[in-house]
Every structure is written in structure tokens, then in C-alpha cells.
């Protein structure tokens, strides 16, 4: 596969590897959490596709999918890759690419084991690892597209100045302003960290193109579409943190995440 420029091109490559695979299980999870010391309640929704020994995942917005998605269980993976819903297509592509080349077997990936602990302990460990992905000097402006408070803190601890964008948050627990439009922050940034949710909401292509045009590093922290995002390493994506389902917030036990870095 030549270096992709768009998410659609990666989905197309997933069609080439899907073959006769079947989506054995398709379901969604609606999840809420509020970390200690924060008044904000995070609400996330993920559609999951099980293929062979892999799960694919993609976040979606409220009302975008309903329980009928479970009726896709047992359908050919190729059919899900043609589904009208972008999050379903991304989850199916993530499953296909993750089954073909698991993160645990990728020689580029550094295994990081998140510790057993409370939601706060695990979130802080995860987000500290994400903040390590990019090297930036003290005072650098780091755009964070998809805001979680522990990652804001981790960027500050490394000397960065967070520039924040999120469609579902207006202020952090420290009263930092959060912009609804990522364009408000990315044009002023020296580096960008974006959530995998951008793959499903249609903003990733523009973020990637902007970072390429400005020649600034882009890291993605991905629960959504981690194997899809991995396809952009060395082609505009500098670094990636990848988790597979079940994600860190769904367990109190030690669990893996995979760090890819050093590509441009």
C-alpha cells in the first residue's frame, strides 16, 4: 500500500485484506465517568466489531447509532466496510487491520503496561505515556484535539502550553478555555495531539493535511481506530498510542498499550 492521504484510502486497503472474514460480534458501549477532582462527566460511545482474534473500535456521537447495530453480527466483514455509517466502517477496518497485524506483534510498537488501580491512577499513567510521544521544548504550544484533563496536566508537566479543542467540553477543571473548532488551535500550534475519535467524526483528514502542510508533528492517542491510525505512521503521523478493546477505563487490572514514535 502506498502512503495514505485519507481515512477512506485506509478503509479501502482494509477491503483488500478482509477476504471472507465474518464480523462475529458487533455491539456498542455507552460509557460515562467522572474523575476525582473534576466536575466534568465524560460520556463516550464506541461501536465494536470482533473479527478472529481482534476487536475493532470507533467512537460515535449520541444518536448516530442504535441497538440495531447488533444485527450486523455474523455479517461478512466486507459488508460492514461498505456500511453507510462512518464509525461502523472505521470499526470494521480497524478489526480487519488489527487481525492482519496485531499491535502486540508489530516490531515498531513499545509495550507499556498500565498499572492496576483506580480510574484516576490508570488515566494518569495512560496520559503521561501519551504526553511522552512528542518531544517539544518548554513553552511549545501543543494543540490537544479531544480533551481529557489528565492529558492536559501531563502536557503542562512536560513544559508545554496546551491549546484545547473539543466538541463536547467548554472548560477544563482548571478553567482553561476549550474551543469547539479544532481550527482555532491547530493553526497556532507547534505540535498536535489528537484523539482517535477524529477518525470517526470526519476531522482527521483535515488535521493530518494541516500538520503536513505546516510541517509540525502529529501524535494520535487511539482507542478508536488504532490500527487505522497506524497506517499513517511516517506519512504525516509522527507518533501513536494504541489500545485495543477492552480499553483501560473498562478494567481495574493491568493492561497493555502500545507506543509508536519517531516517524514523520
Using the alpha-carbon principal axes, give the shape: globular
Helix content: 25-40%
The ordered H/E elements are HEEEHHEHEHEHEHHEHEE
SS-derived structural category: alpha/beta
Question: What is the domain tally?
Answer: 2
Helix count equals: 9
Average pLDDT figure:
94
Name the CATH class of the largest domain.
Answer: Alpha Beta
Could you name the CATH topology of the largest domain? Aspartate Aminotransferase, domain 2
In percent, how much strand structure appears in the residues? 15-25%
For the largest beta-sheet, the strand count, sense and barrel status come to: 7 strands, mixed
CATH architecture classification name of the largest domain: 3-Layer(aba) Sandwich
Distance between the terminal alpha carbons, to the nearest Å?
Answer: 17 Å
Instruction: Trace the largest sheet across and list its strands.
Output: 4-10-9-8-7-5-6
Uncertain regions spanning at least 5 consecutive residues: none
Total beta-strand segments: 10
CATH superfamily of the largest domain: Type I PLP-dependent aspartate aminotransferase-like (Major domain)
Using the CA coordinates, give the radius of gyration: 17 Å
